[in-house]
Every structure is written in structure tokens, then in C-alpha cells.
Structure to design on (98 residues):
């Protein structure tokens, strides 16, 4: 059984085959950024403990917001093993999941 969700404190995970998606929600982008970075560290530790490797090139970041709350772009700096993840739009995400 995959116990990765048990090691996450701030995110909800969605697992499908060999893909994992994380969902973190909140109103403060700085808090979201911090929580995501904490969870990435937790996931990296889990991967190491289970002798697995993460394909950091496939890690993407997407923002979902209510239209009434949009106040310009919010740039989150999410670091995975020292590399910053790419932010994509919904249409760009579709090409990665195909």
C-alpha cells in the first residue's frame, strides 16, 4: 500500500499509477509557497526511504483561483532538489498528462 499521503502535513495527495498530484489551498501565497516547499522535502525523504527517484523535470505548478479573487499573477518559488518548478496553465498541463 502506498503510504505517501501519511507523510504529508499541509497537502492533499492524489495518486494514480506512477503519478502524484498535490493540492495545497489557502489565501496567502507566501503560506502556500512555504507549505508546498515543506511537502516537497517530505516527499523527497519518502522517495529516498523507499529507494525511489523523482523525475524533477516532470514537476509542474498550477494555480487555481476564484475569478473574483484574481489580482494579477502570483509567482510561487517552489524548489525541488535545488531546481525551481515551472508554472503552467491548464492547457499546458493537458499536454503533460496525455
Amino acid at each position: 500500500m502506498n503510504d505517501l499521503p501519511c507523510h504529508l502535513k499541509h497537502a492533499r495527495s492524489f495518486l494514480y499509477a506512477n503519478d502524484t498530484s498535490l493540492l495545497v489551498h489557502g489565501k496567502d501565497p507566501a503560506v502556500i509557497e512555504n507549505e508546498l516547499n515543506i511537502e516537497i522535502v517530505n516527499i523527497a525523504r519518502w522517495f529516498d526511504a523507499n529507494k525511489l527517484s523523482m523525475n524533477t523535470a516532470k514537476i509542474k505548478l498550477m494555480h487555481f483561483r476564484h475569478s473574483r479573487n484574481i489580482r494579477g499573477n502570483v509567482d510561487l518559488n517552489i524548489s525541488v532538489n535545488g531546481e525551481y518548478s515551472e508554472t503552467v496553465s491548464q492547457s499546458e498541463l493537458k499536454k503533460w498528462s496525455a
The chain has a mean pLDDT of 76. Residues 4-97 form one domain. DSSP finds two helices and six strands in the chain.
